[in-house]
Structures are given as structure tokens and as C-alpha cells.
Specification:
single chain, 352 residues, alpha/beta, 9-stranded mixed β-sheet, 9 strands
């Protein structure tokens, strides 16, 4: 299959066996409405422990447009999304989760907006069904804090659900950072980006894949990727602490000159504890940035694909696929599934 599809739909999947068939049905129907048969539906299995890959394999055998991508292990939502984008070849690419909280049918509204010149059409949530009060409150605080801290304008109440032109996707894939915050990276690229307000549905099936721990890590990745403000806050806290300490030293010296003993062991201990806490906070902030620099400097592969599947044919991609240029990735994908040729590997999905 070397003909370039008009549309690619990329959906990262992690333990989505309960709702994956319904997602595929609705996504394929929406894609067919706007692109006919000239589309591909890329389902990325992000190290699922249930029957997600078996369902993807079955769908690929039944639906010619389905492309299955299986990662060697769980890389997380952002890198799984990146792997799917790297495997896409469409002139326009829709990034969407497979849990059906973001309706695939909105594609029919996004495409006309892009026809009028938009480079990116992103979904902006006006309402979120099926979310707990804690999730809603923490998301609201996160987006508003990010708006104040980020060095680029990142729209509030948005996820990764968006339709992008190929040039935007290629620029996004050329950005080398491993700790990825895709919605911020797309905002950084610029161009004409248009919001499409919508009401987000409850999950069709299964449970959320973002517990509190992952939410906190995701927020840290977002803030450290697009803002140095926390480092400046650490600097100001240090300067304020130094000023307070100097004032206490002057006060103590003056009282000593007056022959008075400075009392208040408790207050002294409280001050020492406060200064120590500020120092540890500052060290922690610096450590977050430094740790990310260390991880980036290792230059490990961004993601590792075990198997790529179209129809009943399985193949392997080069081990350096995640680091390839856009043209080289396209050539590698065309070579794997060239018409009339046998894939380079049908028996083993291991990286060569």
C-alpha cells in the first residue's frame, strides 16, 4: 500500500479491549464519510495486559484500513501517540483516544474547518461527563496554572484530540524531546489553530488510565517542558529567605548590644525549619529540570515497535525508526507493505 491516504486516525490503546471494537466501528464510519476508502486507522497497543492486541489483530484482518502497531512495552500515552503519528502517512492526521470520550464523529466538523485554511483543529471541552469532582477540580487548576507559567499560549481545557495537517505532524515528530507534552508542542509550532468546542462524553467502557501518580508526572512534564518560571520562583524564594535571615541577624546583634538575651527557642527552630524547607523545595525544582536534561542526553530510542500489522501480514521496522526523518519513515513504511511483495518479516516482530 504505497498510495498516500487522505486521512490517518491515530489512537493509542492501553487495556481497551472492552470498547475497542465500538471505537473502530465509529471511527471508520466517520473517516469513510469524509475520505471514502482513502484513510488508515492506526491502533497503537501500548503494552496492554488484556486482549487489546488480539482484538487489533482481528480488526486488521477484517478492515483493510486498520494498521496495528504493537510497542515492546508500555511507554505511556504521549510516546504511544508519537509512535502512531510516526507510522501515519495521511495528509491530515486525527489524534484521538480509543475510550470514546472524544466522539470520532466530530471529524465531520473538523474537516471543513481545515478546508478553510486551519493547520490544526483542536477539541476544546465545554463539559466533561463521568468525571469525579476531584478530576474536574485538579484539571481546572492545572490548566489555569499552566496558562500563567507557560512560555507559549496553550489553550485551556484541551487534550490531545485534534486534527493536524501533515506539515504540522512532521514538525512535531522532528522535535526530539522524550518527555513529551503533545498539546503544548503543537501550540508551540504555531500556524492557524482553531478551537472546536464540544461536550466530552463519559468513557464507553473500562477505567481511566491516568491515576493520580500519572496525573502529577504529566503535570510536571508539561510545566518543565514549557516554563522556566519554577526556577525563577526558587531564586526569589532564596532571595527572600536570605533577606529574612539578614534581618534576624541584625535584630539579634542589636539586642546583644542592648544587653538583652534573645529568647524563644521555639521560634528559632521554626525559622530554621522554614529555611530548610525552602532550600529543599529549591533543590527539588532544580532536580526536576536536571533529571530531564540527563534523560534527554542519553538519546535512547523514543519508542520501540515490536510488530506492525496490516491485514494478516506482520512486519518489523528498523530499530532506529523513531529517530528517522519524515522521508525515511515514509520510505520504510512503503517498503514494509509494498503491493505484491512479501513483508520483510512475517514470523518475528523483534527489532532487527
Amino acid at each position: 500500500m504505497t498510495k498516500t491516504p487522505l486521512l490517518s486516525i491515530v489512537a493509542p490503546c492501553h487495556n481497551e479491549e472492552e470498547g475497542l471494537r465500538e471505537f473502530c466501528r465509529r471511527a471508520a464510519a466517520a473517516a469513510h464519510s469524509v475520505a471514502g476508502d482513502a484513510f488508515e486507522l492506526i491502533l497503537v497497543d501500548d503494552g496492554s495486559s488484556d486482549g487489546t492486541w488480539e482484538i487489533i489483530s482481528d480488526l486488521a484482518a477484517k478492515v483493510p484500513q486498520v494498521l496495528g502497531v504493537r510497542l515492546l512495552r508500555n511507554h505511556g500515552h504521549q510516546l504511544a501517540s508519537t509512535a502512531g503519528l510516526a507510522a501515519s502517512r495521511g495528509e491530515r492526521v486525527l489524534l484521538i483516544d480509543a475510550d470514546l470520550q472524544d466522539p470520532p464523529e466530530l471529524l465531520l466538523m473538523m474537516m471543513p474547518i481545515m478546508e478553510r485554511g486551519a493547520d490544526v483543529v483542536y477539541g476544546q471541552r465545554t463539559r466533561r461527563e463521568g468525571e469525579t469532582w476531584f478530576k474536574l477540580a485538579s484539571a481546572s487548576i492545572f490548566y489555569r496554572a499552566l496558562t500563567q507559567l507557560a512560555s507559549v499560549t496553550i489553550p485551556r481545557d484541551t487534550g490531545d484530540f485534534r486534527l493536524m495537517r501533515r506539515r504540522v505532524v512532521d514538525i512535531l515528530l522532528a522535535m526530539p524531546e522524550r518527555h513529551r507534552f503533545i498539546r503544548g508542542m503543537v501550540s508551540w509550532i504555531g500556524g492557524k489553530q482553531v478551537a472546536l468546542p464540544y461536550e466530552r462524553d463519559a468513557r464507553f467502557a473500562g477505567t481511566t488510565k491516568y491515576p493520580l501518580r500519572k496525573m502529577i508526572n504529566f503535570a510536571l512534564d508539561a510545566i518543565t517542558s514549557f516554563s522556566t518560571t519554577p526556577l525563577r520562583i526558587a531564586t526569589w524564594l532564596g532571595m527572600i529567605s536570605a533577606g529574612v535571615a539578614l534581618a534576624l541577624l541584625v535584630y539579634t546583634f542589636v539586642r546583644w548590644l542592648q544587653g538583652e538575651t534573645v529568647t524563644g527557642w521555639s521560634s528559632i527552630m521554626a525559622a530554621v525549619s522554614a529555611f530548610s524547607a525552602i532550600q529543599l523545595i529549591c533543590i527539588g525544582i532544580i532536580g526536576e529540570y536536571l533529571g530531564r536534561l540527563v534523560q534527554e542526553s542519553k538519546r535512547r530510542p523514543m519508542f520501540m515497535i515490536e510488530t506492525i500489522l496490516r491485514g494478516s501480514e506482520q512486519a518489523e521496522l528498523p530499530a532506529v525508526f523513531s529517530e528517522m526523518s519524515a522521508d525515511d519513515r515514509r520510505a520504510a513504511l512503503d517498503e514494509v507493505f509494498a503491493p505484491g511483495e512479501t513483508p520483510r518479516s512475517q514470523k518475528s516482530g523483534r527489532l532487527g
